[in-house]
Amino acid sequence: MRKSLILFICIAAVICSPGLWNAAAGIGALSSASAVLYEPDSKRVLHGKGADSPRPMASTTKIMTALLAIELSPLDRVITVPEQAVRVEGSSLGLSGGDRITMLDLVTGMLLESGNDAANAVAFAVAGSIEAFVRLMNRRAKEIGMKNTFFATPSGLDEDGHRSTAYDMALLAAEAIKNPVIAKICASKSALIVFGDPPRKVRVTNHNRLLQLYPHAVGMKTGFTKKSGRCLVSAAEKDGVRLIAVTLKAGDDWNDHIKMYEYGFSLVELVAFPAQDLPDLDVAGGRVNKVALKMDAPPSKVLLKEEKSKLRAELSLPKFLIAPVKSGET
Fold it and tell me: Which of 1, 22, 34, 136 is the most buried (most CB within 10 A)?
């Protein structure tokens, strides 16, 4: 008598190649002071230029603000906008003190229209003050691994010490885009939100022109201040591969990102390991003496195309199992 046992089988890609930090033939010169092209599956940098140099990052800051809003507050929560939140310069959603708006619509307006008033309203709603929210931002940055980042504002307006690096912002983007709400908003060209007294519908438009210029772009966030210059954090997906690109202080960020993506997608591919035929495994102390093994799913990995020839699949199993063993156990 046999039972089916589902096991996670560890198949490792044995690769010994360093990250690629230097410009390669074909990518060309970039206009940005800092840039990085990051592959989050393998956590590999495919291209970097001043990637660890701290710089102001303008409204790309709002990626962190949105992430915390979604992680720490129900999206259907109705927020009453405090007067302090709307006293802010720069891009605005047009909120007034006393307006009522859901957290989801605040996040949508913040990511698409880049409303600084919306970012402040999120901070007050989540933490009670700008200062308390900034502490949450910096704590979350440490959790993500952003070692050269300091947040001083939820909006990204110029303020002393407010800074990050292209590499750190790529880590933030990789974390944030895993959230389906953020991914959906950032991929939208526009959206309808509701706020005001009385409530009114307002259409907000995505400032990220890369969605129109590059067919594989799937979103993220633009930014600009006089101090930071043009900043852009973006993501693109092609043939199962997701890449993250970041530029800070760029003269031509759209083309910088397209150049990096074309380069990156020419380098890497998603490699699926073949399904393995698994042996039956002995069971000690049970009502049956063998169980059939079933692979949960063949694993896959994003690799440099030149690495495919260096792959080695290893199957590691115990000599036997000790009862009780349940069908479908992993």
Answer: 34
pLDDT in tens, 50-82: 999 999 999 999 999 999 999 999 999 999 999
Identify any residues that bridge with 242 across adjacent strands, giving them in sequence order: 237
For all residues of the chain together, what is the average pLDDT? 88
Q: Is 261 left (phi over 0), alpha (psi -120 to 50) or beta?
A: alpha
AA identity, residue 218 = V
Task: Judge contact between 225 and 63, C-beta under 8 A.
Answer: no
Domain range enclosing 312: 2-16+275-322
Residue 173: exposure state from Cβ atoms within 10 A (0-12, 13-18, ≥19): buried
Task: Report residue 35 CA to chain centroid gap.
Answer: 16
CATH number at residue 138: 3.40.710.10
104 and 173 within one domain = yes
Residue 48 pairs in a beta bridge with 36
Q: Token pair 């760029």 is at which residue?
A: 250
Report how far residue 130's alpha carbon sits from residue 275's, in angstroms, rounded to the nearest whole number.
52
Tokens representing 236 are 């693109």
Residue 22 domain-assigned?
no
The predicted-structure confidence for 112-163, as pLDDT tens digits, reads as follows: 999 999 999 999 999 999 999 999 999 999 999 999 999 999 999 999 999 9
Q: Which tokens is 274 given?
A: 């073949």
Q: What is the pLDDT of residue 295?
A: 67
Q: Which amino acid is at 258?
A: I
Q: Which residues are catalytic?
A: 59, 62, 114
